[in-house]
């Protein structure tokens, strides 16, 4: 009963600030910075506050890639696709499908793209670029692009059609976009973003972490994306995946 009354008093205290003095029991002294100040224990509560959950800015992670490159597909398959959802609370992922392509302005004012893995790759880049534009929210278009990139053997366009059907994506609108001036302009924007990289990219997949690319960041991303993102996140409200212990495959004794 006494505990109950103290609890009520404490709740009134914090909701209405009716108490200017430290009239809450000691177990509540660290419950807020205001109460700690009133009870003159701010310094003593400091370490307790610092262990409380603290949000921080999301880690910006950008992937520059091209739709039909085996190493990009491998990066999706081994790092991004299995972990994207679990990291999505702390990772602001941006996808830039263009990679090692080249562009040239044609007579009609439209851009003409040449891709490392042929025409099919250009179509794949365009499909993904249009999907990003039309579907807007990455939690909607990531599964679609991830599905295309996880298809090992088909050309991007065939994968895209299959993936759209599987995920209920409106492929007709995407296809229309790829054949339009808008699609051409959107792909040009991907080219501009890729060509603005500093240092310029030398290969794909090429990643930036909070806008920065180094060989070390690249290697960490390719080896263990979860560790890289969890380590770069400054908040203490890390998602469960950050605490999971990775074990490699082992033959245990018997
Ligand atoms: C990510 O980018 C946004 C927008 O530019 C910025 O506000 C934020 O601070 C960045 N996050 C980190 C961890 O740098
Ligand atoms: C995510 O990154 C984009 C740039 O790629 C930026 O414009 C946006 O502000 C960022 N959002 C957050 C929440 O950091
Ligand atoms: C994107 O979709 C998710 C899940 O539907 C939602 O939680 C989030 O707020 C959306 N983000 C934006 C920027 O609309």
TrEMBL record:
Protein source organism: Pinctada fucata
GO molecular function per UniProt: oxidoreductase activity, acting on a sulfur group of donors, disulfide as acceptor
A cellular component annotation (GO) from this entry: extracellular region
Protein name: Interferon-gamma-inducible lysosomal thiol reductase
Ranges of residues in domain Saposin A-type: 20-48
Family according to the record: Belongs to the GILT family.
Keywords: Disulfide bond, Glycoprotein, Secreted, Signal
InterPro entries named among the record's database cross-references: Interferon-induced_GILT, SAP_A, Thioredoxin-like_sf
Chief location category: secreted
Highest rank taxon of the organism: Eukaryota
Signal sequence interval, chain numbering: 1-19
Localization terms from the record: Secreted
Keyword Secreted: yes
């Amino acid at each position: 009963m006494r505990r109950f009354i103290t609890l009520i008093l404490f709740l009134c205290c914090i909701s209405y600030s009716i108490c200017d003095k430290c009239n809450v029991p000691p177990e509540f002294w660290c419950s807020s910075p205001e109460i700690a100040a009133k009870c003159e224990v701010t310094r003593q509560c400091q370490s307790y506050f610092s262990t409380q959950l603290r949000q921080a800015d999301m880690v910006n992670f950008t992937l520059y890639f091209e739709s039909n490159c085996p190493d990009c597909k491998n990066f999706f398959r081994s790092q991004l696709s299995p972990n994207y959802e679990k990291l999505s609370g702390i990772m602001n992922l941006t996808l830039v499908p263009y990679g090692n392509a080249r562009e040239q302005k044609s007579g009609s004012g439209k851009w003409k793209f040449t891709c490392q893995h042929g025409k099919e790759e250009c179509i794949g880049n365009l499909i993904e670029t249009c999907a990003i534009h039309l579907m807007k929210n990455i939690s909607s278009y990531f599964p679609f692009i991830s599905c295309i990139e996880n298809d090992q053997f088909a050309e991007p366009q065939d994968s895209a059609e299959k993936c759209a059907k599987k995920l209920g994506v409106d492929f007709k609108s995407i296809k229309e976009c790829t054949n339009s001036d808008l699609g051409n302009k959107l792909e040009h924007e991907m080219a501009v973003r890729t060509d603005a990289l500093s240092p310029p990219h030398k290969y794909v997949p090429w990643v930036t972490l909070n806008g920065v690319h180094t060989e070390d960041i690249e290697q960490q991303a390719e080896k263990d994306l979860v560790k890289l993102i969890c380590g770069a996140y400054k908040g203490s409200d890390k998602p469960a995946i950050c605490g999971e212990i990775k074990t490699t495959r082992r033959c245990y004794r018997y």
